[in-house]
Amino acid sequence: MKATLKYPIFQFSPDENMVYTFWKENKTTQLALLKECKGWNGDIVIDSTGTKYTVRRSYMTGWKGIHGFTGMSTGMISYETEYEDNPEPFSLRQLQERIAERYPKTWWFREECWDSVDDFRQTIFACKSFEELAETMMPKHEFTVWERIQDYFFRGFFLVLGGMLLYIIWLFIKKAWLWIVG
User: Fold this and answer.
1) φ, ψ at 181 (rounded to 5°)
2) Residue 2 falls within a domain, yes or no?
3) First vs last Cα of the chain: how many Å apart?
4) pTM: predicted TM-score of the whole model, two decimal places
5) Which of 49, 125, 171, 182 has minimal CB crowding within 10 Å?
6) 56-109 per-position pLDDT tens digit
7) Is residue 1 part of a domain?
8) Residue 152 is part of which domain span?
């Protein structure tokens, strides 16, 4: 069954401790990752309405870029996900309990510098909505106008710098050609 999920969503495997948080739909991945995870078969997805979906399979729908080559990445594909036909309700409390029980066992827990497991659990159980819980697990980064201006300024700067470098190289080639030909 195809499902329209309300973001943010939480995705986890029943036999692993990591809980992934996604703020928006992204139907792009690497083919090797899709094969390694066996299409995320059996993973549980919980959207922000409190509905639990079980992934039946994910499958490739096409290549991204030129046969999977996009910039520095290779093997990039578009994919679709099918879910089991019986979505179930999943309360915020159940999700909080799962995260509080399993997430401290991951190496990401230490990497993200939580003071203690008790502090983490208090923070998780203090969340009153799925959106607040998602913000705690993975803060949503919104670009400010100033950050966007800086980003485009640096892009433009490096574009002009690259153009100047190409022009200088062209001048050297032209002088070398005139010197060789006479």
Assistant:
1) -75, -35
2) no
3) 74
4) 0.72
5) 182
6) 999 999 998 887 777 777 889 999 999 999 999 999 999 999 999 988 888 777
7) no
8) 148-182
